[in-house]
Amino acid sequence: MLRKLRELIADLKRAGFTLEPARGSHRKFRHSNGATVILSGHREGADAKPYQEKQIRQKIEETINAAISGKSGGNSNENK
Fold it and tell me: What predicted TM-score, i.e. pTM, was given to this entire model?
């Protein structure tokens, strides 16, 4: 069963993303670490597309992993 856009939005907000102004039916969410997600969809009650669910899941995982590595003091970009 497909999830609703409102559920994906709730997931983003729980992960610390905030809604920023955007045009039309697009919603732009930004995290304090700079990660950005743009969701398209006219109504929050509409079914989310599988690619949207995958995109949200990946961004949330990236954000969590960045927070974990940041807390441990490790920075993967130090030697680059």
Answer: 0.79
CATH number of the domain bearing residue 49: 3.30.920.30
pLDDT of residue 75: 42
Please provide residue 33's backbone torsions phi and psi, each rounded to the nearest 5 degrees.
Answer: -85, 0
Domain of 18?
A: 5-67
Considering its fold, how many domains does the chain have in total? 1
* Contact call for residues 56 and 63 (beta carbons, < 8 A): no
Separation between Cα atoms, residue 5 and residue 63, nearest integer Å: 20
> What mean pLDDT comes out for the span 45-58?
92
